[in-house]
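Annex B. Sample input.
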Amino acid sequence: MTMTFWPDHLFLVGCGNMAGQMLSRWLGCGLDPARVTVLRPSGKAVADGVRVVTDYPAALPAGTTVLLGMKPYQIGDVAEALAPLCAADTRIVSILAGTLLADMRACFPQVRDIVRAMPNLPVGLGEGVTALFTDSRAAPQAREAVDALIRPLGLAEWVADEALFNQVTALSGCGPAFVFRFIDALAQAGEALGIPADQAARMALATVQGSATMATRASDSPGQLADRVASPGGMTREGLNVLDADDRLFRLLIDTLTAARDRGEAMARGE
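Annex B, continued. Sample output.
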């Protein structure tokens, strides 16, 4: 990681769980904390060397990248105070769920380079997924700079159609919670079969971790891997037959992602 990946200055509006994970990873990858300012009403420190302010500064340094990480409903109040501070070279990255790029442009009409981003929690480990979207108004250099900033967090995926952003958010943004629930259910199922609870929990977690690592390194798709390890008439095949019957697992996940997507669309309507 070289310093050319970092913006001249990074200004975070809010530093909750997600923005905090992103900042922690960037600092761990070499971002100079002296380049970072965090606006946090509580004034609570976030990391050694990072300046925390409780109100907006009189001006933003040249070449500032702003990360909007507060609650989406706060965008109006934030824009009222922040927009006058933004200059032609200010760049905005928004992680506000359900807040459309058009809404952002209405709030910050003088800012050309605005990018929507939807990270998930493993970004703090450098193993996250961040969906990204911008329009043709943003400069190509801005897209490249944001891409370089996001890469240390894990996979950066640019979405061509903003209409898919809620679908992508349902998959990757909400996905960790769904995987956590699966791990917990797998452990509970093992316990129900008689395995001691603590052993079932450790085994379920390690099984998912190892399987995910194997899938990322394999040339075959996860579906192909499942079939490869399931011998005809064997235990694994019998279990897969239950999951595959009537596409029950597939249908359950469609219902799960649809519910998450629909909530994102409702949030975008202010509901």
